[in-house]
């Protein structure tokens, strides 16, 4: 499809036409003035990660000794839990950060003042006072609503001096996931600067942004002189004309005024400089002009960088009349960007332009699809570097760089949380019938390229226009078909491992928050376990109930669905101090527990304040009488820190040393210390929170264990997707005695390839998205189950046939001893079974709804595994 100036019929991304320059513009009101300090960022994160950022929008320094922060806890109307007087002086255009004294180091590095006070929880209102005058507030005093739990919020609206009015974070703030700290310490304020009485009118200076900006070097132009958009964009990451008022002219390529981004994109005919972009975002939150894609417009406004996106804040706009469109119009077609790019500067040189990627790109990351409407795509499926290479190796470093350069994010063009309906890149509504999976392909994504929340994003050109074409960025090819059944792993006995993603019968804890959510969660888990049909299943992330209530509730549900008493549990009671634990269920018709279970919880090298205690139980296979000891584990996550040397280095995440020490302690315990019925055969299963080239796994291999997933599925196996990169955290490792008896091992890809939009949770979804639910096994968790096949005794062989009794007697004498036969092997030679779902072809988030400075969709990544 092609667009020309003043043609209003088409709205898909394609070719546009630019004409000549035109007339003076009508004015559009700018933002209202802010005359005192206001809260610019709020952090309520994990543990003690709490901080408040306060911005000075005025033109002079402010003495903070007259200001205080008051916390109104739990719906109270009097300050409690925190009434903190601020200290120091705050320069104009700068921020002041108040933080908890034992917050994470990233927060403390930005803190100007710390306090040991309890500060706030997510249901506490916060009021900023100047003396006794309220100058800003967060939340609603007198209301116990959950304003902001486990979230980072950045201000986009003006201060709120009414402490008891309704609070809607989606209107006033941009939302980011738990423990997002990258914007703390700076604020991109796009409103006018107040001039305090008795001071000279200051020159506006842009605040710092997360992306580096170039030092202005351009010669100022008169506001009425039309300049090329490339001159505004410049050749660097930031505009060389920040703070200047400019006039530019171009064709409207995308309209995002009513989708939360509060603006539109324009593009001119180019300046013949490939290092400068010819497109630009126009921030126009108050604009309601009858503007259409293809209109040629003249824009006047101030240049700024909003978190790395170059923009012009609209002060006046004129739609160029037909009579002034040049007869020799310049055609604009989508610029081609081929992945992988040579460097990220390729994207920057196209920021704000209509672009296309002339490739079929694999869907990589979709954790934020339901919440923010974003999908990351890349040349092939991407793998965690340490899933394929040794941490810190040149190969791992090169793969991390290649992954970064080989992806881009498709954004739905709506800067709102939990948009409804959810739209696919095709522009169609998402349903259970057209749902995509990781690894499916998006054909030649096309749209306008923007930057926000540290990611380059391709947006549809007209997300609010009401047409499929306007919402479309590319067609989808379904190439990763759902598996119809669990993978065949062979053997006479199957063992499974399943992370059940916070299955809690206690509501409002880590798992379900309502009875309906619990019923939905339970139904999916029950379907998955019954279909996998393993004789023994080790569970992770089940509630650590005092009397095994959650575990027994799950067993009852499994038996009800099976129509018989098919399942039983090893009742351990609570293990350790965490809210989640490890557990076993088994089928009494197939196996029987032998002796007591044992728990690894008393070795100082196995820190149960960080790991969940390892649980071991010996089972007898009833058909053969043979036994196997199974140990189910859940090691410390890669998320919160453990205060280790070089923590997080080489791409292994936090706490790698803690996990490595835990792995060694586990091997030592199983070799000589676990008080379980002795068995030659030992199988380690569970979520070890380590990829297969990381030291916790290599430590177990050095202790004589074989990585069964790698043996049977190869390096490119996966059970989990994090930041669009595949790998397996869920393991099965056999000791030397058991390894020859293993007939197969595989991940069942029912979860990691599915969008979280279809899971049980109803917490953030709209009604239409709540309805996207069935009781199938798909997205029953975020981890894929693991299945292992065992043949503990040799499979019986068929004896050679006896001679037919009616046959004539042999003419030569029978041998005096029977002819030797080849003995049956003690176990089948291990082979690599074909995976039940397509092998990965090898593996780049959207957006809260700000109402001021040109918002761009946030790029929260999927949460670090627990």
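Sequence proposed for the structure above (866 residues):
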């Amino acid at each position: 499809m092609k667009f020309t100036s003043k043609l209003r019929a088409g709205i898909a991304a394609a070719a546009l036409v630019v004409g000549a320059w035109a007339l003076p513009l009508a004015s559009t009101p700018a933002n209202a003035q802010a005359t005192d300090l206001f809260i610019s960022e709020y952090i309520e994160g994990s543990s003690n990660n709490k901080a408040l950022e306060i911005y000075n929008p005025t033109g002079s320094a402010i003495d903070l000794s007259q200001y205080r922060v008051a916390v109104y806890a739990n719906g109270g109307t009097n300050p409690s839990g925190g009434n903190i007087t601020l200290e120091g002086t705050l320069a104009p255009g700068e921020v002041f950060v108040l933080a908890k004294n034992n917050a994470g180091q990233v927060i403390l590095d930005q803190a100007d003042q710390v306090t040991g006070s309890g500060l706030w929880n997510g249901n506490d209102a916060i009021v900023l006072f100047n003396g006794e005058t309220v100058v800003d507030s967060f939340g609603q005093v007198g209301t116990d609503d959950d304003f902001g739990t486990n979230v980072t919020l950045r201000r986009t609206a003006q201060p709120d001096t009414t402490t008891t009015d309704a609070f809607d974070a989606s209107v006033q703030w941009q939302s980011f996931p738990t423990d997002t700290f990258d914007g703390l310490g700076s604020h991109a304020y796009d409103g006018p600067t107040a001039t305090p009485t008795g001071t000279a009118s200051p020159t506006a200076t842009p605040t710092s942004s997360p992306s580096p900006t170039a030092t202005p070097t351009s010669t100022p132009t008169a506001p009425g002189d039309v300049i090329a958009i490339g001159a505004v964009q410049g050749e660097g990451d930031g505009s060389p004309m920040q703070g200047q008022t400019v006039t530019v002219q171009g064709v409207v390529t995308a309209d995002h005024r009513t989708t939360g981004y509060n603006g539109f994109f324009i593009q001119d005919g180019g300046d013949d400089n490939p290092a400068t972009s010819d497109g630009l975002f126009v921030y126009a939150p108050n604009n309601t002009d009858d503007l259409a894609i293809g209109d040629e417009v003249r824009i006047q406004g101030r240049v700024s960088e909003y978190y790395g996106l170059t923009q012009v804040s609209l002060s006046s706009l004129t739609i160029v009349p037909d009579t002034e469109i040049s007869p020799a119009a310049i055609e604009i077609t989508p610029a081609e960007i081929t992945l992988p790019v040579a460097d990220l500067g390729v994207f920057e040189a196209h920021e704000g332009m209509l672009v296309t990627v002339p490739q079929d790109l694999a869907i990589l990351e979709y954790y934020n699809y339901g919440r923010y409407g974003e999908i990351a795509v890349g040349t092939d499926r991407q793998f965690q570097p340490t899933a394929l290479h040794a941490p810190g190796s040149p190969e791992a470093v090169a793969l991390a760089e290649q992954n970064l350069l080989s992806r881009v994010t498709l954004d739905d063009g709506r800067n709102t949380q939990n948009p409804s309906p959810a739209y696919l890149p095709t522009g169609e509504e998402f349903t259970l019938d057209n749902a995509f999976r990781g690894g499916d392909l998006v054909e030649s994504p096309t749209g306008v390229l923007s930057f926000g929340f540290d990611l380059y994003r391709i947006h549809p050109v007209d997300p609010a226009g009401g047409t499929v074409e306007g919402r479309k960025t590319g067609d989808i090819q379904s190439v990763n078909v759902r598996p119809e059944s669990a993978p065949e792993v062979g053997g006479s006995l199957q063992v499974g491992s399943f992370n059940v993603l916070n299955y809690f019968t206690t509501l409002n804890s880590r798992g379900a928050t309502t009875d309906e959510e619990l019923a939905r969660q339970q139904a999916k888990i029950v379907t998955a376990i019954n279909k996998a049909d393993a004789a023994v299943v080790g569970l992770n992330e089940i509630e650590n109930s005092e009397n095994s209530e959650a575990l027994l509730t799950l067993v009852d549900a499994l038996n009800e669905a099976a129509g018989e008493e098919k399942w039983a549990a090893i009742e351990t009671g609570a293990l350790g101090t965490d809210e989640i634990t490890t557990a076993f269920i088994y089928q009494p018709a197939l196996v029987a527990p032998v002796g007591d279970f044992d728990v690894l919880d008393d070795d100082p090298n196995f820190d149960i304040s960080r790991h969940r205690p390892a649980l071991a139980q010996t089972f007898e296979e009833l058909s053969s009488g043979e036994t196997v000891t199974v140990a189910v584990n859940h090691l410390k996550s890669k998320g919160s820190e453990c205060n280790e040397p070089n923590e997080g280095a080489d791409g292994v995440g936090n706490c790698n040393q803690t996990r490595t020490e835990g792995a060694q302690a586990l091997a030592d315990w199983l070799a000589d210390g676990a008080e379980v019925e002795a068995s030659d055969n030992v199988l380690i299963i569970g979520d070890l929170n380590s990829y297969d080239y990381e030291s916790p796994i290599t430590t177990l291999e050095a202790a004589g264990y074989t990585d069964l997933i790698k043996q049977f599925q190869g390096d490119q196996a996966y059970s989990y997707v994090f930041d669009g990169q595949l790998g397996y955290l869920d393991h099965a490792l056999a000791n030397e005695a058991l390894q020859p008896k293993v007939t197969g091992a595989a991940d069942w890809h029912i979860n990691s390839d599915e969008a979280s939009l279809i899971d049980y949770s109803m917490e953030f979804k709209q009604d239409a998205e709540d309805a996207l639910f069935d009781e199938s096994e798909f997205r029953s968790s975020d981890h894929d189950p693991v299945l292992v096949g065992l043949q503990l005794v040799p499979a019986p062989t068929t004896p050679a046939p006896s001679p037919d009794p009616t046959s004539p007697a042999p003419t030569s004498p029978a041998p005096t001893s029977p002819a030797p036969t080849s003995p049956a092997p003690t176990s089948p030679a291990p082979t690599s079974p074909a995976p039940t779902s397509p092998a990965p072809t090898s593996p780049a988030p959207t957006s809260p709804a700000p109402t001021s400075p040109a918002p761009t969709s946030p790029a929260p990544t999927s949460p670090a595994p627990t």
